[in-house]
Each structure stands twice: as structure tokens, then as C-alpha cells.
Amino acid sequence: PEMVAELDAALKRLAEIIRRDLGIDVEELPGAGASGGLGAGLVAFVGGRLRPGAEMVLEALHLDERLNGVDLVLTGEGRIDGQTARFGKGPAVLAKHAHAAGIPVIGIGGAIDDEDELRPIFDGLECTITGPMTLDQALAEARPLLVRATERALRLAVTGGRFRGGLA
After folding, report:
1. Deepest of 22, 28, 29, 86, by most Cβ within 10 A of its Cβ?
2. In the beta sheet, which residues pair with residue 75?
3. Is the pTM of this model over 0.90?
4. Which residues make Cβ contacts (< 8 Å) with residue 156, sequence separation at least 6?
5. Given a cut of 50, is residue 5 above it in pLDDT?
6. Residues 34 and 86 reside in one and the same domain
7. DSSP structure string for 85-123
8. Are 60 and 75 within one domain?
9. Euclidean distance between CA atoms 41 and 137, whole angstroms
10. CB under 8 Å to 142, separation ≥6 — which residues?
């Protein structure tokens, strides 16, 4: 903790010097992280440009073209929560593209929290964990848990169930 505070103070000082000498406010760069971080240094010192990583990956994959003819998108991560929504993580960015193409999206995660923040992003959510289980157990059983969660998601998508396990 002491070292973290020292590093944070040094980064803040560096941000002040960059602002003063180069006229670039790295603390306000979207996506640069706290006090700027590596991205801020690239912007300030070599003329770099920050772009959201998930958008770059989906662009490289030609996602929008690949969505043609798709009826449903399933996506997920270990924990789908408010950070997924607020920080533009991959599943949220994928959902944005799918919705722009009129395609419903179901998120599948090992844990799901902050559902109110997720409702505008996902048409349905399905958790792989349906009962008490340790992290070690969940990791050991990841494949069958994911298969069952996917089956539930597809069943509810087909029957038109409601949010938290189905499409509106």
C-alpha cells in the first residue's frame, strides 16, 4: 500500500509536468487509466492515439459484416457486472454492435451482478453457477456449467422468456 501511494503520487506529478510543458491533460484522457498510465505516455511523448481495445478487436474481426444473417448473439465473461457496462468491456461492445443490427444478445457469466445497469445492454442473462459452489469447484466444472447455461439461454430465447434468462 505504501508503494502504491508513492507510485500514484509520482504519476500525478508526471501528469502535472506533461500538462504544464506539453499542454496535454493526460489525467482526462478517456481510457488512459488513473493518472494516465502507459497510454498517456504514448499520447504525450510519441503522438499516440487511444482507442478502445474491444472496438479494435471487433473491427479487426469484421464483426459488423459477420453479423449479417445472425439471429442471436451469445457472449460472456467470468463476471458480468456494472464494470462490463461502464468500462466498455468486450461483451458490452459486442452487444452494442449486435443491437445496432437488430440482433438480441444474451450474456452468460460465472457471476452476474448489477442487473439494473445491464438491462439496457443485454436482452437476457444466464449465470453458469446455479447453486453454492467454491471458485475451485466452478473452475473444475467450467465446461459442463457453461454448456448447461448455454442450453438454458437458448431454451429461453426460443420460448421468449423475460430478462434474466430470456428475451423481452
Report:
1. 29
2. 107
3. no
4. 124, 126, 165, 166, 167
5. yes
6. no
7. HHTT-HHHHHHHHHHHTT--EEEEEEEE--HHHHTTT-S
8. yes
9. 42
10. 110, 128
Do 73 and 150 share a domain, yes or no?
A: yes
Residue 167 in any domain: the answer is no
> Which cell numbers in the block locate residue 111?
457471476
Q: Do 115 and 136 share a domain, yes or no?
A: yes
Closest CA to 100 of 75, 76, 65, 53: 65
Domain containing residue 29 = 2-46
**Cell (9 digits) for 148:** 448447461
Neighbour order of strands in the sheet with 105-112: 73-80, 105-112, 124-127
- The residues facing 107 across adjacent strands are 75, 125
What confidence tens digit (pLDDT) does each residue in 118-140 have?
989 999 999 999 999 999 999 99
What does the alpha-carbon distance between residue 27 and residue 31 come to, in Å, rounded to a whole number? Answer: 10
Query: Which region holds residue 29: left if phi is over 0, alpha if psi is between -120 and 50, else beta?
Result: beta
